[in-house]
Structures are given as structure tokens and as C-alpha cells.
Design goal:
This protein is an alpha/beta fold. About 30% of the residues lie in helices and about 20% in strands. Strands 1-2-4-3-5-6-7-8 form an eight-stranded mixed β-sheet, with helices on both faces. Helix 4 links the parallel strand 7 and strand 8. The chain starts with a strand and ends in a 14-residue tail after the last helix. About 40% of the residues are buried. This is Alpha/beta hydrolase. InterPro entries: AB_hydrolase_fold, Xaa-Pro-like_dom. Keywords: Hydrolase. One of its GO terms (molecular function) is hydrolase activity.
């Protein structure tokens, strides 16, 4: 798994990158939790997501947002971090011009950044938002959400209470043409302490089903003339 340094909007960004053997393989970008609360690309959940996509033949990248590890710059309350994520995707795409589709997976703060990236990049066909925080961050930009994806949270998450996540899910489920899958890990907190294996099993099941052509949104009903 090569260590990489690539150019971001505020200086160099540090990442870990694993290219697929297939030139046209999809790309997966994994986004880490809040930089000011210990979030890095080496977070256990980020690390496991990276390998989950890699094992399924994706070209995969995780990286440190600005100001973390060897990434240059300073924390920018989300705006700069979104630019970092866009630059990361640009960098992978420049190396893999035959890759036409992409997935984004984010955990906590990274879930918020990932959903914003989704709105900007039509080539993103799937997402995973793990423990998003609609009680802390504004998700109103998802109007409409352009891609199907998974939202998964812990039942006992006090950082992002389940009722807030349920509200976000219900709002997204009203949209036509996409399918939002919601999973809750029983008894899990925001960090999935002791429950990471259960979390990853849910993520793997979702990704495998999507790759098998399942979880397709229902076609829009034809209007009766």
C-alpha cells in the first residue's frame, strides 16, 4: 500500500493509495473523522473501509485532511476539507482516466464532507455515511441527493442521536430515483467500541449487494394519460 503525497489546495496532502489491477476499476475515496478530535486516515474504521473496497477490486485512497500528519495547511471548518477531498478525487482520476465511476465513504465528520462531495461530482454512484451528525452539521444541501447509498449509525450514539439520523434518512427517502438504505448497529456508540466487526459486516453486505446489482431504486411510476 504505497504512501503518497499529492497537491491539495492548501499544500501537500498525505495519503495511502492502492491501485486496482483493472484499468477501468471504480475508485473509492475514504474520509476520516474530525481533525480536531483525533481523526486521521489511520482511524480503525477508515482503515477497514479502505481494505473492504480494495479487496473488491476498487482503486482506493484514504488521506489526511489539511493539518493532519504530513498534510499541510490548517483546519478550515469543512470548506477547506471539502476542497481537499475534491483534490484527492482529482488526483486519483488523473492516474486512472479509464475509471468512470466512484464511491465515497466517510465516518462522522468525514460523512458530512463525503455527502457534500457527492453533490459536486456526478461520477459518484454510491456512498457510505457512517455515524453522520445532522444534529451538528447542516445536511440541507442534499436537495436532491443524487446517488443511492448506505447510512449507518450506532443505536446508543450520543454524539449523533438516532432520532436526528432518522430524520435525515426519512427526508432522503422521499426522493425519487435513489434508494437510501439505513442500518443501525444495536448498542453501538459513536465510536463503535467493540462493534467495529458488526459495522463492517453491514458495510460489506451493502457493498456486495450493490455490486451484484441489487438494491436498485424502483422505477418511477408512469403517469396515466
Amino acid at each position: 500500500m504505497p504512501e503518497v503525497i499529492f497537491n491539495g489546495p492548501a499544500g501537500r496532502l498525505e495519503g495511502r493509495y492502492q491501485p486496482s489491477k483493472e484499468k477501468s476499476a471504480p475508485i473509492a475515496v475514504i474520509l476520516h473523522p474530525h481533525p480536531q478530535f483525533g481523526g486521521t486516515m489511520n482511524n480503525q474504521i477508515v482503515y477497514q473501509l479502505f481494505y473492504m473496497f480494495q479487496k473488491r477490486g476498487f482503486t482506493t485512497l484514504r488521506f489526511n485532511f489539511r493539518g493532519i500528519g504530513r498534510s499541510q495547511g490548517d483546519f478550515d471548518h469543512g470548506a477547506g476539507e471539502l476542497s481537499d477531498a475534491a483534490s484527492a478525487l482529482d488526483w486519483v482520476q488523473s492516474l486512472h482516466p479509464d475509471s468512470k465511476t466512484c464511491w465515497v465513504a466517510g465516518y462522522s465528520f468525514g460523512a458530512w464532507i463525503g455527502m457534500q462531495l457527492l453533490m459536486r461530482r456526478p461520477e459518484i454512484e454510491g456512498f457510505m455515511s457512517i455515524a453522520p451528525q445532522p444534529n451538528t452539521y447542516d445536511f440541507s444541501f442534499l436537495a436532491p441527493c443524487p446517488s443511492s447509498g448506505l447510512i449507518i449509525n450506532g443505536e446508543a450514539d450520543k454524539v449523533a442521536p438516532e432520532k436526528d439520523i432518522n430524520g435525515l434518512v426519512e427526508k432522503l427517502k422521499t426522493q425519487k430515483g435513489i434508494l437510501i438504505t439505513h442500518r443501525t448497529v444495536p448498542g453501538a456508540n459513536h465510536f463503535f467500541n467493540g462493534q467495529v466487526d458488526t459495522l463492517m459486516a453491514e458495510c460489506e453486505d451493502y457493498l456486495d449487494r450493490r455490486l451484484n446489482g441489487e438494491l436498485v431504486p424502483e422505477p418511477a411510476a408512469k403517469r396515466i394519460r
